């Protein structure tokens, strides 16, 4: 594949990624708030089923990445752990959309790097440079200010949104720890990283 075709392909994937994420978010908000659908966990199940089917089709028919098999019980447990944490973050995000505006939901989601730095420190006891922590202060301060002035603020929705954001960050840290052990990250990172 020429470098120009490869650049177009990668750009198309990025645009498709952002478009699908925005579309799913707005559709979930419409279903849960405007349409009155009351089952955010069922919506999450539909999300997970669609991801599984489309991932399988992309691997088997489009051959985007090679098909991988689970080789050990340890590998299965690592993938299952990541899946449960990821599913929890999606459930929390969907529940929060029932109570919060999409814009506020996304503003709270901007605190993901804060939670990532926190969980990375708690899990590995390795500190980042002070500049990294200093860069997180305005982000967190902005979310605190936005929370105080949000006209449609709902405490339960906010708690679920923070929980979903923390779960996303925890999944990233956990993924780095679990998949980097024994070189397993290079074997199946493409299957689990979402």
From TrEMBL:
Query: Which InterPro entries did the record assign?
Result: Sugar_P_trans_dom, TPT_transporter
The principal localisation class reads membrane
What kind of membrane protein is this, topologically? Multi-pass membrane protein
Which residues does the UniProt record annotate as the domain Sugar phosphate transporter?
A: 11-179
* Transmembrane feature ranges: 7-27, 39-64, 76-97, 103-123, 130-147
Kindly state which keywords UniProt assigns to this record, in alphabetical order.
Answer: Membrane, Transmembrane, Transmembrane helix
Q: Where in the cell is it found?
A: Membrane
Q: Name one GO cellular component term.
A: membrane
Domain of life the protein comes from: Eukaryota
What is this protein called in UniProt?
Sugar phosphate transporter domain-containing protein
